[in-house]
Amino acid sequence: MHPPNDFRRLTDAEWELLQDRADQFAAALHRAQPEDWERASKYWDAALEGLDPAVRGAVLKELVKIDLAYRWSRKQRPELEEYINRFPELGPAAGAPVDLICEEYRIRGRRGTPRPWTRTGGGSRRSSRSSNTSSPPSSRP
């Protein structure tokens, strides 16, 4: 059995399943009315139902990317922590999957919104837009 989030190790059949579930999820989002967002868990449940744990992680990450892009296009502003809180299998925020951090960063950039994630040695943290940029760092001899 391979790690659940390792896309490179998916078999052809698993890739096909991932693509089918992602397509169905995206179609459900596009058919949804704004008031359906309160009941959006039905879309997630349908897309993740009955998946082998080896495939579920890969499908889940793809669904997060789809949902992030769709909701940002609808002027909602979900953050990665929302998904991490809902799906603990994504791991703690400090160890969030790098591809999901990159996707949130990319989407925010396309929408002209400040990018909140920075990577630090021990994990992720929120960056401050009011960082100390008023003076250059001092150089010591």
Q: What does this protein look like?
A:
The protein contains 5 helices and 2 strands, in the order αααααββ. The longest helix has 21 residues, at 53-73. It has one domain (7-119). A two-stranded antiparallel sheet has the order 1-2. The chain is globular, with a radius of gyration of 18 Å. The termini are far apart. The relative contact order is 0.11. α3 runs parallel beside α5 (98-110). The protein has helices at 12-31, 41-48, 53-73, 80-86, 98-110, and strands at residues 117-120, 123-126. With 141 residues, it is mostly helical.
Reconstruct the topology from this structure.
Blueprint: H1 12-31, H2 41-48, H3 53-73, H4 80-86, H5 98-110, E1 117-120, E2 123-126
Antiparallel strand pairs: 1-2
The biggest beta sheet reads:
2 strands, antiparallel
Strand content: 5-15%
Q: How many independent structural domains? A: 1
Specify the structural class. mainly alpha
- Distance separating the two termini: 55 Å
Q: Roughly how much helix do the residues carry, as a percent range?
A: 40-55%
Total strand segments: 2
Please give the count of helices: 5
Shape: globular
Which spans of ≥5 residues are poorly predicted at pLDDT below 50? 1-5, 119-141
Rounded mean pLDDT is 77
